[in-house]
Amino acid sequence: MDDQAKKLRELAQRIREERGRESLIIDPIKKPEKILLDGSITPETKNQDSLIHRTNNTRIIAISSGKGGVGKSNLVVNLGIALAMRSKKVAILDADLGLANIDVLLGINPKYNLQHLVDGKKTVHEILLDGPHAIKVVPGGSGIPELANLSDDKQQKIIEDFVELDSEADIALIDTGAGISKNVIAFILAAREAIIITTPEPTAITDAYGLIKVITQRDIDVDMKIVVNMVSSEKEGQEIAGRIVIATRQFLNKRIEVLGYITSDGSVNASVRRQKPFILEYPGARASRCIKQIAASLDITNGDDMHLANRNGFRGFLSRLFER
User: Fold this and answer.
1) Which residue, among 28, 319, 275, has the nearest Cα to 171 in the 3D structure?
2) Residue among 11, 44, 8, 6 nearest 26 (CA)
């Protein structure tokens, strides 16, 4: 028995040493594991996740659409709050050059924006806005196009500035513009993960598919998810999402995930007029329940190991953005 116990201890030690040589980037969503004396592995409780999360690389997710007017920015704001309600630290970057309105939807008035950061007048912490449930907002405005034309020194300075947000955000939602402009594509490719939102309107579906096609042709490994907004029922949401999934698989050889749908709800327009997120103004509304379900799905969907290994938080995101 003593020899058997000794062999088991030696086996467990070898497994620990082998695992210690693995990547330090560990999926924070998966339950941590511990090695038993016999070398088997058992999951621990979620409360111990922080004990093994050795990096603070923020999960960067671009949220985009094939056309405007489909509720993209509303999704960004309310999804960010829903994730914060799930104890996630959330940052939002307003990168919609033409219609930067995250601050409007939140009823806040930015004194500074990304332009001041690009000009070297302010740091990222000085332009940050505080939103509901401790979410952080980086106002974009007219500073977006200049990012691609900065000198190497200025680009590096902005990278180092943004890297500090990795310790303050588990997830960053990038509100891109709509369509297939150079800026939109660049942000999605740099993020490596994207949520594409559409509505049942035929032109919106066609444009969403067009955006997915362009991204896939540029980089088939970008992780894309679909959300259908303004549906009359769950059945309609599933039907439209299913059509897009089948088309992308059949014609683009690309698998995309259905993240969820949002039903049409009068509380959404009412909240926009009041400049209040509908998930806070009408927490029991159908649209709010849908957003919470989407947040739950996103929370447990953390990408595959390759995406985790290549994520690298804000540093990786901005480095890829500047390269394009």
Assistant:
1) 28
2) 44
Token pair in block for residue 101: 């309105």
Assigned token pair, 32: 């941590």
Torsions phi, psi of 307, nearest 5?
-65, -40
Asked if 76 and 102 touch (Cβ cutoff 8 Å), the reply is yes
The single-letter DSSP state of residue 31 is P
Distance of alpha carbon 223 from alpha carbon 310, whole angstroms: 12
Half-sphere exposure of residue 194: CA atoms within 13 angstroms, side-chain side: 31
Strand (E) or helix (H) holding 228: strand 223-231
User: 162: closest CA among 323, 54, 320, 318?
Assistant: 318
Helical H segments across 49-128, by residue range = 49-52, 72-85, 102-106, 114-118, 124-127
Residues listed for the chain = 324
Sign of CA dihedral 308, 314, 320, 324: positive
Q: Which residue has the higher pLDDT, 306 or 217?
A: 217
pLDDT in tens, 61-100: 999 999 999 999 999 999 999 999 999 999 999 988 666 6
> Within a 13 Å sphere around the CA of 190, how many CA atoms are in the beta-carbon half?
24
28 contacts 170 by C-beta, under 8 angstroms: yes
What percent of the chain is predicted at pLDDT more than 90? 63
What is the secondary structure of 170-201 as a DSSP string?
SEEEEEEEESS-HHHHHHHHHHSEEEEEE-SS
Q: Which two tokens stand for residue 213?
A: 């096609």
User: Higher confidence at residue 217 or residue 14?
Assistant: 217
- Helices and strands per DSSP (H, E), number in the chain: 15, 10
pTM comes to: 0.80
Q: What is the mean pLDDT of residues 214-227?
A: 97
Q: What distances in angstroms separate CA 226 from CA 92, 113, 160, 201, one per listed residue?
A: 19, 29, 32, 15
Name the one residue in this structure whose structure tokens are 């090695």: 35
